[in-house]
Amino acid sequence: GAGVSQSPRYKVAKRGQDVALRCDPISGHVSLFWYQQALGQGPEFLTYFQNEAQLDKSGLPSDRFFAERPEGSVSTLKIQRTQQEDSAVYLCASSKQYSGANVLTFGAGSRLTVL
Amino acid sequence: AQKVTQAQTEISVVEKEDVTLDCVYETRDTTYYLFWYKQPPSGELVFLIRRNSFDEQNEISGRYSWNFQKSTSSFNFTITASQVVDSAVYFCALSEAYAGGTSYGKLTFGQGTILTVHP
Predict the structure, then answer these.
(1) Do residue A89 and residue B43 have CB atoms under 8 angstroms apart?
(2) Which entry of A110, B1, B33, B61 is 20 to 30 Å from B46 by CA?
(3) Average pLDDT value for residue range A75-90
């Protein structure tokens, strides 16, 4: 597609529920990132994929967070047993290559509210 | 560890005023890239400008200009003749060129500056 597509745009979950957030990157983009943006804060890195390989998951806050990109295109971020502190906007970004000079194209984000 | 600081939380200006957004960064890397992204109410971060650590030449692109000073670790961004459509949250970000031998463009963002341009 023309841009990075994320779904759902809004998700309300009860504490303890599992959620899955989807990211459809730009076709052919090798690199895919997930970021977490709390209210009033800058995005914080969660994890990085290069094609289907998850090369960096250093930002995942706990083992309740899991991400995959099995075929090197669509990615899913899964949060198990959601907690209130998981409430945030989850941003996905992709880029054509992998270098420090990368310009990332971001999706509009999935806003998660945990009650 | 890398760090990006945007000391200005909110800025309010009247249309046609010039506005400068400040950014200070910390990194141990000798090679790195600096970015400015804009986040309008729709939520998508939009790329504005990029500068690498070896190029301190300051440039102007339309109404945007930037001032990169390696000696003070600052990367300030100026909008000339601001417009209402410039209202958004602006983020400064730092990309490490090498992380454990792997370069892939992981960004460290500042806290953001909310810019409001009044008509």
Answers:
(1) yes
(2) B1
(3) 97
In this complex, is the C-beta atom of B50 within 8 Å of any C-beta atom belonging to chain A? yes
pLDDT over 70 (residue B101): no
Residue A14 to chain B, least CA–CA distance (Å):
24
Residues A57, A49: Cα–Cα separation, whole Å:
9
Task: Specify the residue for token string 């971020």.
Answer: A77
Q: Residue with structure tokens 């779904």?
A: A7
Query: A76: Cβ–Cβ under 8 A, 6 or more apart, which residues?
Result: A20, A21, A22, A23, A67, A68, A69
> pLDDT for B106-118, tens place per residue?
899 999 999 999 9
Partners of residue B108 in chain A, C-beta under 8 Å: 45
From residue B72, alpha-carbon distances to A46, B19, B76 in Å are: 29, 20, 11
Å from B62 to nearest chain A CA? Answer: 20
| B110 in contact with A, Cβ within 8 Å | yes
Looking at the predicted structure, is the pLDDT value of residue B102 above 70?
no
SS3 letters across chain B: CCEEECCCCEEEEECCCCEEECCEEECCCCCEEEEEEEECCCCCCEEEEEEECCCCCCCEECCEEEEEEHHHCEEEEEECCCCHHHCEEEEEEEEECCECCECCCCEEECCCEEEEEEC
Within 8 A of A89 by CB-CB distance, chain B residues are 43
Neighbours of B41 (CB within 10 A): 7
Cβ neighbours of B37 in A, within 8 Å:
106
